[in-house]
Amino acid sequence: MRGNGEFFMKETVSVKNLGQMLVIICMLSGLFACVTSESDTQEMVVPVTSPVVDAVVTPAPVAPSSAAPAVVVLEEVLQLEVIAEPIDTESNIALDTTLAGMTAVTALCEKLGAKLGSVSTQDCLHQQLIHSSVSYTGNSLAYREFPALTDYAPLGRVLVIGGIHGDEFSSVSIVFKWMGALQEHHTGLFHWRFVPVANPDGLLQNVSQRQNSRGVDLNRNFPTANWGADAHRYWVERTGRNPRRDPGEKPGSELEIQWLLEQISSFRPDVIISMHAPYDLVDYDGPPSAPSNFGSLHLRRLGVFPGSLGNYAGLDMKIPVVTVELESAGIMPSPAEINNMWVDLVQWLKGQLG
After folding, report:
1. CA-CA distance, 140 to 276, in Å (whole number)?
2. Main-chain dihedrals φ then ψ at residue 125, nearest 5 degrees
3. How many percent of the chain have pLDDT more than 70?
4. Is the pLDDT of residue 232 over 70?
């Protein structure tokens, strides 16, 4: 089920406009808590008896319930990270507190809340994403940072990227789940930067697509050393000019890729985690050692493609890149699996960077 919630949004436009004004006023005054009335529940990952489908959901009245609260499992996620650790204060976060920046983030969150079944508008707003640039259609390119906390150096810098392919819904939603956990438990073991939606135009179309709004596969547009010789030849000979694999006219031609290159350059990550679906595996490019598994996802090499992030950052720049391919693009992993993946990720990072 993939729609865009147009009917519901039209029926509630006046309320949403008023809500957006209140969000902006609150954020400017430093009282962001006024838009987080769901804070008792929005960070939770609760056991489910049926798959959580990442598609548009039509809001429906919620009947009052006297049942006991569902068991929360995400508090267990960061047990490995909550141990006493060296921490770092170095951070160069340039917060966009302008009215335009906050408006752009609010608009992005409203669209994500209407599009995804497991990320609400409030979930997104609660993260206080930092507006950094805009896509071709004007959607915010935003990130969230969990910086160093004290005078001690963290083990390293970790960049997590979700949604580089717009039709891989779960790759966006799981990033929001992990950001929610860190918002409660960040202790500075690592310096994190999250890009939850690298391709908002592809995701937020009426029918979501892998490519960006110009029809370019962003994960074939990175300026790899072999791009000029191999990218178009591979596209023509190996994919038969499949439009879903179009590498673009030239390396780094797309706004979203230019922005991601800037993120890599300014943040200087020691490791990049790139979230995808639905191949049900872990892939790895770069030095020095690959993880054997994250949760139930096991290491299985997919190969190296011209213009891919793994090729650019992992092989050309020697930054380890872990590509996490979730089992389904439209169904979230179970709460237990989300936990297990995170614990394995943190454990691997400690071994890799420690």
Report:
1. 20
2. -60, -35
3. 73
4. yes
User: How many Å apart are CA 135 and CA 326, to the nearest integer?
Assistant: 26
Residue 222 tokens, joined: 């990175």
Give me the residues paired with residue 272 across strands. 159, 321
Q: What is the pLDDT of residues 252-269, one digit of tens each?
A: 999 999 999 999 999 999
Helix segments in the chain, DSSP class H: 6-11, 13-28, 99-115, 121-126, 169-185, 200-204, 227-239, 255-267, 309, 335-353
Q: How many helices (H) and strands (E) does the chain have?
A: 10, 9
Distance of alpha carbon 327 from alpha carbon 281, whole angstroms: 8
- Lowest model confidence (mean pLDDT) among 61-75, 240-254, 305-319: 61-75
Cα–Cα separations (whole angstroms), residue 256 to 90, 262, 264 = 26, 10, 12
Q: Which CATH architecture has domain 45-55+72-95+141-353?
A: 3-Layer(aba) Sandwich (3.40)
Q: How far apart are CA 316 and CA 229, in angstroms?
A: 15
Quote the Cα angle for 239-171-61, to 5°.
125
CB atoms within 10 A of CB 234: 18
Could you tell me the residue ranges of all domains in the chain? 45-55+72-95+141-353
pLDDT digits (tens, 9 = 90+) for 298-315: 999 999 999 999 999 999
Better-scored residue on pLDDT, 84 or 203: 203
What type of residue is 303? Answer: G
Angstrom CA distances, 154 to 15, 31, 138, 345, 348, stand at 44, 29, 35, 16, 15
Among 130, 139, 144, 120, CA closest to 35? 120
Assess whether the previous peptide bond of 223 is cis (omega < 30° from 0).
no
Tell me the pLDDT band of 96, cut-offs 50, 70 and 90: low
Q: What is the pLDDT of residue 129?
A: 97
Neighbours of 288 (CB within 10 A): 7
Unique residue bearing structure tokens 């209140």: 22
Tell me the average pLDDT of the chain: 80
